[in-house]
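seq:
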Amino acid sequence: MRHLEIRLNRFLADCGLGSRRKTEELIQKGLIEINGKRVTNLGTRIDPETDVVSYLGDVVKPIVEPKKILIFNKPIGYLCSHADRFHEKTIFSILPSTYKNFKIAGRLDLNSRGLLILTNDGVLAQKIAHPSHGSEKEYLVTLKYDPGEKLIQTAFQKGILDAGEILHAKMVKLVPGKKYMYRVILEEGKKRQIRRMFHWLGANVVDLQRIRVGRLELEKFNLEEGQYLLTETGIWK
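struct:
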């Protein structure tokens, strides 16, 4: 019985033999063997569970890195992307290159700030980011104009239809003593959701800060904007 097959160049890259393009050169040069047979076809796929892959006669296996979570206090003006031709400032221009392969578990837009979670565990990143896993995300939102707490609560709980999507909030509440500032909790994560919901009510957002994801609260990490903390994935459980 065959398990999940992957492309040979990806497997070789996971083994630390270089980028996928570099490993394609190794394949074309006939330096790779699968189960003792030389291969040169770039489209070759393998079963990592059963196939034995060798480079220059030595068996190679994927490098297993310890799974980690990176807690990052994102500043305004930095894009949640590894690279973008229109924006020189990305979060990875702040973070050390050591974390260039970490996945972003729930993005913040360019003009938003606060708690951002990255991890080198792809499965965990999906659990944190995807709405089906029910990870609450909490925000502090400051408005330029306040339509009124009751109107906002009614609209957010009933649902707002925007661009073919129905947008909900689990909770929205005016922060005591803070004019025009609301605490918003989401269980879903549609693109620019909070800004779109308030804009629909005629209230533009002037500041949006994420302060919590699941049980992880930004204030407990004591991080200034632009600072980060590397920790174990067990912190999410």
